Amino acid sequence: MPVALLTGGGSVIGEGITCALVARGWTIAVTDINLDLARQVAASAGGLPHAEAFALDATDSAQVDATVKDLLARHGGIDALVNAAGGMRGLGVQKTDFVNMTPEVWNRVLHVNLQSVLHCTHAVLPSMIAAKRGAIVSIAASRGLRGGPGASIYSAAKAAIIVFSQSLAQEVGRHDIRVNTIAPGNAEARWKKHGPEATRSPLGRATSGDDVGRAVAFLLSDDAAHITGSCLDVSGGTTLH
């Protein structure tokens, strides 16, 4: 069975991704800074041997390197990386005009959303290049396609993920490694309360974890064998970029 490393796996989106991939025959290393949530998600997908939980701070390069090394020793390879760690209000950072932000706050947003992608991608690439195969999908956001007020740093981080992935796709394509992103919009989250904003999309509902999971499964599948450097808009029509 192919093996995928998932960051931010304890989230609603992480759960959707885990369940979608397990249903398609993948083995998932569900990682999250909150081990209890990672375990909850792994259990919801059926648990061992298909989904196993690991504690991981994806902003800590030493932790990332150790986790990747452990998975390589266990499985002999990592076929896919799914970068889902991130967020803003889920970190306790409220919408704020940039002029009122501090470097401490914006660095936290940048570390969790962008640096985590860089650390994890850098850690898995050598083994993928050696194997001459692999796929990387990073969860961006509709704010990375079209910025919004009160979310300037979050928008910048998500836009950076999209362009970084476009650049990387051109570097590693010769090794049969594909790199893509997904831009959810108004996605469900554990910290969100249901309200009128959930019906803003033309489809009348928020983006679900299952919506994102199915999109990730597609981009990792052979059906997407000729897709790289792309950003798949899964916003339900709220972005219309």
- The helix-and-strand class reads alpha/beta
The CATH architecture is 3-Layer(aba) Sandwich
Helix content: 40-55%
Beta-strand level of the residues, as a percent range?
15-25%
What is the element layout, followed by pairings?
Elements: E1 3-7, H1 12-23, E2 27-32, H2 35-44, E3 51-55, H3 61-75, E4 80-83, H4 103-131, E5 134-139, H5 152-172, E6 177-184, H6 209-220, E7 231-234
Parallel strand pairs: 1-2, 1-4, 2-3, 4-5, 5-6, 6-7
Helix pairs in contact: 1-6, 3-4, 4-5
What does this 3D model show about the protein?
This protein has a 7-stranded parallel β-sheet with strand order 3-2-1-4-5-6-7, sandwiched between helices. Helix 1 (12-23) crosses helix 6 (209-220), helix 3 (61-75) packs parallel to helix 4 and helix 4 (103-131) packs parallel to helix 5. 47% of the residues are buried. The protein has 241 residues and is α/β, with parallel strands linked by helices. It has a single domain, classed as Rossmann fold (3-Layer(aba) Sandwich). The mean pLDDT is 93. It is globular and about 50 Å long. The chain has helices at 12-23, 35-44, 61-75, 103-131, 152-172, 209-220; strands at 3-7, 27-32, 51-55, 80-83, 134-139, 177-184, 231-234. The termini are far apart. It has 6 helices and 7 strands, in the order E-H-E-H-E-H-E-H-E-H-E-H-E.
